Amino acid sequence: MTVxxxxxxxxxxxxxxxxxxxxxxxxxxxxxxYEKAKLEKTVVLYGAGPTGSHDRWIKDFEQRFPGVTVAxxxxxxxxxxxxxxxxxxxGTMETDLAILQxxxxxxxxxxxxxxxxxxxxxxDAIDPAYKDEDGAFTGVSVNTIVYAYxxxxxxxxxxxxxxxxxxxxxxxxGLITTDPTEDDAGLAVFTMVVGKYGWGxxxxxxxxxxxxxxSGHAAVSNAIAAGEKLATFDSTxxxxxxxxxxxxxxxxxxxxxxxxxxxxxxxxxKHAPHPDAAKLYLTWYLAKEQQSRSGTFSARSDVAPPxxxxxxxxxxxxxxxxxxxxxxxxxxxxxxxxxSYIGRR
Length: 345
Hints:
about 350 residues, alpha/beta, D-Maltodextrin-Binding Protein, domain 2, 13 helices
């Protein structure tokens, strides 16, 4: 066989391989996916987030697609990813679809060949920064990390405008955040703060006797809404939900400091037991109808921001989250350094 014929054969194989990947990733209509999903009957979903945050979506999905149920496992991303790791290591995949905050896991699993390439309907409307170019994973929400305070306990004149304001004496004993050594979103906001104000900020912040929680951002917002704590610079999607429910809590976008954003992403596993049901759920969840009522910023550019908020481009946004959590060496270094402050308490 000649060198030329060898090259031609290799080119043909590469073209076929690329065509196969494109076919695998191609969007399918919800009607077509529903017909296939009914044969599988269920989708196994691992979803991170506050307790109950997936309940309404699961209920709506099961009503919209009779005959397809959702077997749900919730918890923190850092717990769910370990369960998935054990399944991958043992070769017994139970999870079909994962919706997690730890976006770096999806990049690692893609490199390991563990993810199914799939681009749901509407994928073209998702900003390239919020999705994998090959369809291995996609962002399903863009979450801001903002200030929050108890409106009954903090007068308007004392509402923090910058991270420096949290160092004022009136907030001593009244501050709460997630533990940045345990929570990547918490780590992102602390990293932004010391990046702007220097590591000396941490000495002053620790003198305020803050509380650090390891049970997620819902615990931060709940403590402030209940009047147990005064304020935080580490508030996420639970805060507007509590405000909407009439609780005395108010989110604040700082004009002085950048506002970090973190992605919640979704991926289907290559050896998922129910791949078509997983495709159906992800396609439905990313549709404009669902994204427009999520209460958070959508990864889709054609979905309006949550009521009362401007588009993300109107705010001073720190977009370094994905790069931060994808740099394992830097993560390890930052966690250790923040841990050295927290451990002194």
